[in-house]
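*** Fold description ***
***
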Amino acid sequence: MYGTIAKVTARPDKIDELRALAAQLTLAPGQIARYVYRMDANPQEYMLVAVFESREAYQANAASPEQHQRFMALRALLTADPEWHDGEIVDGQVR
């Protein structure tokens, strides 16, 4: 498995729009999970986690026009570009 963790900060006046956008998004092809955390220390700060079946599926999604559209919709709600951290998932467990 492969994925990314992104740290984002929502514009204060766009938090409701950010939540609405997250609620309407479906998983991309090859994506097997998505998690969104709102940080206790700063309610405008979120961590986004996307899990893909493989690096190839992740890269195909990243290069797709559909993902670019999703990113542009997200970026309009943020104070700055996301801070991305990509990598191979080497362990995980779900109940």
Summary: The chain has a mean pLDDT of 96. Residues 65-75 form the longest helix (11 residues). The longest strand covers residues 2-9.
